[in-house]
Amino acid sequence: MWTTILCLSIVLFSVVSQDVYNNVVKERNDILHRELDMMLGNDIELCDSEMKANDIIMDLKRQEIEGGFLEPQAFNLSKHFFEYKDVVKESQLFKLIQKMPKGAILHAHDTGLLSPDYVLNVTYLPDLHVCFEENDIRLLFSTNTPDETCETQWQLMKDARYSSGNVERFDSELRKYFSIVIDNPSEVHTDVNSVWLKFQQYFITTGAMFGYKPVWEQYFYDTLKACRDDNVMYIEIRSVLPELYDLDGNVYDSVETAVSYKETLDRFMSDYPDFYGAKLIYAPLRMVDAKTVKQYIEIAKEIKRKLPDFFAGFDLVGQEDKGSPTKDFLAELVEARWELDYFFHAGETNWYGTSSDENLIDAIVLGSRRIGHAFALTKHPLLIDEIVKRDIAIEVNVVSNAVLKLVEDVRNHPLASFLAQDLPVVLSSDDPGVWEAEPLSHDFYVAFVGVASKHADLRMLKKLALNSLYYSTIKDKDKIAHDFEIRWTKFIDSVVRGNVFY
Amino acid sequence: MHGLIISALLFLVGQTSARVLSNKYDADRHILLSQEAELFLGSGVKLTEDEAKANDILMHWKNKEVDEAFANPEHYNFSKHFFAYRNDVSKSKVYQIIKKMPKGAALHVHASMMLDVDSLLRLTYEDHLYACYGDGDLQLRFADTVPAQLCPFEWNLLSDLRNASGDVAAFDTELRKHLTLYTDDEDFQNSDINTTWERFEKVYITVAGILKYRPVREKFIYESLKNFYDDNVMYVEIRSGLHELHELDGTVHDRMYFATLYERVTEQFMQDYPDFIGIKLILTSSRSKSPEMVRQRIELGRRLKKENPEFFAGFDLVGQEDRGRPLSEFLPLLMEAKEDMDFYFHGGETNWFGTATDENMVDAVLLGTKRIGHAYALMKHPMVLAKVREKDIALEVNVISNVVLSLVRDVRNHPLASYLAFGLPVVLSSDDPGAWEADPMSHDFYVAFVGVASRQADLRLLKQLAYNSIKYSALDNKGKIRLFNVFVRRWEEFVKDVIANDSLEV
Ligand SMILES: [Zn+2]
Ligand SMILES: [Zn+2]
């Protein structure tokens, strides 16, 4: 099955005895087999139909990789994501992965999940006002002209759009604020800070528009819908939980924002009872002082009291290299760790020996249930041991790491070595909407074809999906695993019958 | 053990008040960090008082560089292509220190790419050099009359072309481009691995044309050794296929002659520079050759070893790994040769995973290779990694080569960082420094030290890397002791110099 495993029948023309030769070949194949047996997914046993599906999948995968191996200039996945994100959608393997039940999304930020086209549509809602400033726009829903200062003047978006003379151009200019995708990323996104600036600008620009309660709730509803469409059955979503507002002048605090999420979820679940649900990780900004973190923690505790089944835990977000290191908040976080589960971002950096890199240690010692990114983990042998011992899942977001300038060629992504060692990995997508990726399919595809071993097969894909359920905070794991199995069987059936591509 | 500490810590955390707790926690966090530091390559080196002083100076400048870059990543060089920052490096105090540092041995360099391009250009001023300019290509060949080799246009004396050009400086600038990969062209810096290698091979062909002429090769060897010596390298293991050499009149010397030439020139060099302790040869064959041709090269290795056992270190296969034949195709004859000679295989110089290329590392290890060239793919292969530890197989890491030859851009993602963290047996080397206008070794040490290694990695790492280059060399014990003694003496001078150097004062 493995093309590189040598067969024993090579004709010998030397004096090395057949026995000696056979022994070396055997040892060689042994090592290769044992490595394959170590890989993530090794404990999955495929049934007959899964094996048939696997043959189909591996044929497609081999074609893509062997093509790239012979002609590296044609290999999409070593290029920038913006260059291939649309092209790969034509790939049969991509289509298949899209249809594949992928389990759960465990690492995604709430307002970064939907596409710029979706956000553009939001700007068509009535009562949206816009203020054009020098390099930015501000957006706010309001019945009257907003009181907030504006360098130019507030106008109704509708008026601005239709007085522009060219709606199409107006919209395409507007859309640029809702995506970080550009044609020449290597010239513009030259370093991690420049791309993060652009990335953060998206959240600032859209923040006030999304803070309008009806939009907020609809966005979340549609996020759940998009996940479901991408064959994701459950999501643990991170949110900074901003204050919301409505047109009557009401303001809703973080706790009420969480409640509005829960109500939206309930509405969605009654519309789509086959969706498994969602939970919330409260993840406010890390670039603050210890006093603020203490307030965050109080908010988290209150949400937990109010919505015990909906609340999953706590995290801190923002560019790690620039934000305060986790250790600055040790006193507060140590104290709260009996009451809150932690899901820290940590080691989302390619620095080594810096504060951002050492966040990994704090995440582990603070008892993080999962760690976001852990990109720097391969440089920390002791921490790898700890992660295995404590069974802490690593939430890997390959496309995010490529777009946000941690790694260029994804074949150099540390996920490859995580998979080789069978570390507890779940794949996720971070903020797929901002770089115009699907909720989860691009990340699975890139990890499977671009990062994992050429030999990694359906067992790895299934294991990754199962891991996302296993490492979630869902209480009744048997039930969701059972539901997953039903969907999986249907998927396998459609692959074997060839229906999956249509 | 660290697990226990964490458990104990968690237990304690449950018992006392928060402030006391986080103090305790802070202390234990520190323990965990220092335990990790103990695994790091070089942690076993004990610094003398003077070394500690030199280390303070070194780390002052290193931390300054790293912290400034951490705050302003837009100015950070090492996340860019080597060509984008090569000319800025000399301003760095850390580089200035490393430049003077004795580095022990260079264990992974290819013969024809050891010399700096300016010296190479000077060799084109030798008489009787003919040039054939083709479609973007250049062939060079020494001969007393027009060379017989095929030329798509025509052979001319380079000196005639140069004089006729009217602008010698401009002519040489053009000529120089054929002798080096170095360029400002960002498109080239961003090109894929095959495009880069094709250009690399073109440069090789042009340079090799000059080096077939015996008197020029002789100068080339001498000057190459001088380059390495001036970069504070005291011993070199050179990879070469030992081609035939010719005289002006067309007389051809066989490959064995080339070997004796190496010995003769090295002897001369050692007379001139007595604290250079010598060279050894790792005989190579191109990995795209047929098994029969590889067998013949191995046969040459056997003869060399018999006639010059001191000089001959072992055997290797070279060329772009993804495109050449995998080691497994040569398994029978390599297994046979294993009885007669040591191996120093290139293996896993690739960012593919699960292909014939990265699986070369398995064969290299099973064939008993003494060291592995590159082993770039090692972190994806836990079993091979275990074998590397068990058998103490050194990894010859060439960071700049991996950047220039399109494996990695931001060197912070280079697997060397993990090798150092795990304390694997690493030696640093430079592969083909002449081809990309790097110093013989200093640039590679500098980039590895500031760009790849932990912010905390210090003089102990540098000293250990130099030690390793002695320990994992093909020298016998006597040779290692000789090299070690030279190294120790020079190291003491170096440390004194760092302390006394006004320009490094903090
Ligand atoms: Zn994130
Ligand atoms: Zn090499």
UniProtKB/TrEMBL annotation, chain A:
Reaction(s) catalysed (UniProt annotation): adenosine + H2O + H(+) = inosine + NH4(+)
Uppermost EC category: hydrolase
Domain Adenosine/AMP deaminase N-terminal: 23-97
Pfam families, per the entry: A_deaminase (PF00962), A_deaminase_N (PF08451)
Residue intervals of the Adenosine deaminase domain: 194-479
Main localization category: secreted
SUPFAM superfamilies associated with the record: Metallo-dependent hydrolases
Cofactor names: Zn(2+)
Domain of life where this protein originates: Eukaryota
Keyword terms of this UniProt record: Hydrolase, Metal-binding, Secreted, Signal
Signal peptide: 1-17
Keyword Secreted: yes
EC number: 3.5.4.4
Subcellular location: Secreted
Family annotation (NCBIfam families): adm_rel
Similarity comment: family membership: Belongs to the metallo-dependent hydrolases superfamily. Adenosine and AMP deaminases family. ADGF subfamily.
UniProt name for this protein: adenosine deaminase
Organism: Loxostege sticticalis (Beet webworm moth)
UniProtKB/TrEMBL annotation, chain B:
Alphabetized UniProt keyword annotations: Hydrolase, Metal-binding, Secreted, Signal
Compartments (UniProt record): Secreted
Pfam family, one: A_deaminase_N
Residues in the signal sequence: 1-18
Bilayer-spanning residue ranges: none
InterPro entries registered for this protein in UniProt: A_deaminase_dom (IPR001365), A_deaminase_N (IPR013659), ADGF (IPR006331), Ado/ade_deaminase (IPR006330), Metal_Hydrolase (IPR032466)
Catalytic activity: adenosine + H2O + H(+) = inosine + NH4(+)
Required co-factors: Zn(2+)
UniProt superkingdom: Eukaryota
Ranges of residues in domain Adenosine deaminase: 188-484
Domain Adenosine/AMP deaminase N-terminal stretches: 15-98
This enzyme's EC code(s): 3.5.4.4
Cross-referenced SUPFAM superfamilies: Metallo-dependent hydrolases
Family stated for the protein in its record: Belongs to the metallo-dependent hydrolases superfamily. Adenosine and AMP deaminases family. ADGF subfamily.
Protein name: adenosine deaminase
Native source organism of the sequence: Loxostege sticticalis (Beet webworm moth)
